[in-house]
């Protein structure tokens, strides 16, 4: 019985990883079944390379979108001299050059 488990577990993991890569591929604009079958028949390593080579562009777009969103939520503090909103942590006002840490 134990030998049954030990021989079937890697195959199960292989299939699970292939499914997972299918999902990741789909998320990056690739065909779910294509990514899944590549991982299943050509090893998950090839599936990973496939996702990495063909799905990177969308991932970069996603990351830049996230960065833009993050920038919008940056807390600001108002310059007491000119009223310019500066990102928190800024030492010198970007508008008038007033020392904000003083
Ligand atoms: Zn200022």
Describe the structure.
The chain is mainly alpha-helical. It has two domains: 1-54; 58-102, no CATH class. It has helices spanning 2-27, 32-41, 43-54, 56-72, and strands at residues 76-78, 85-87. A two-stranded antiparallel sheet has the order 1-2. Strand 1 and strand 2 form a beta hairpin. Helix 1 runs antiparallel to helix 2 (32-41). The protein is elongated and about 75 Å long. The N and C termini lie far apart (74 Å). The mean pLDDT is 84.
Amount of helix: 55-70%
Structural class: mainly alpha
Strand content: 5-15%
The averaged pLDDT comes out at 84
Given as residue ranges, the uncertain stretches (5+ residues, pLDDT < 50) are: none
**If helices are DSSP runs of H or I spanning 4 or more residues, what is the number of helices?**
4
Ions, cofactors and other ligands present here are:
zinc ion
Q: Looking at the structure, what is the overall shape?
A: elongated
Radius of gyration: 25 Å
Q: What's the story with the biggest beta sheet?
A: 2 strands, antiparallel
H and E string: HHHHEE
Gap between N and C termini: 74 Å
The total count of strands amounts to 2
List the main descriptive attributes of the protein structure presented here.
102 residues, mainly alpha, 2 domains, two-stranded antiparallel ribbon, 4 helices, binds zinc ion
Q: Summed up, what is this model?
A:
The protein is mainly alpha-helical. The protein is built from four helices and two strands.
Topology at a glance:
Blueprint: H1 2-27, H2 32-41, H3 43-54, H4 56-72, E1 76-78, E2 85-87
Antiparallel strand pairs: 1-2
This protein binds zinc ion (ZN).
Zinc ion binds next to loops.
């Amino acid at each position: 019985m134990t030998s049954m488990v030990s021989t079937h577990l890697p195959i199960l993991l292989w299939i699970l990883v292939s499914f997972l890569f299918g999902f990741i591929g789909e998320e990056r604009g690739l065909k779910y079944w294509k990514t899944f079958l590549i991982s299943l028949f050509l090893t998950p390593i090839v599936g990973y390379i496939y996702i990495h080579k063909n799905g990177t562009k969308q991932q970069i777009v996603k990351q830049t979108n996230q960065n833009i969103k993050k920038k919008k939520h940056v807390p600001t503090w108002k310059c007491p001299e000119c009223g310019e909103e500066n990102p928190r942590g800024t030492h010198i006002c970007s508008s008038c050059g007033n020392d904000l840490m003083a």
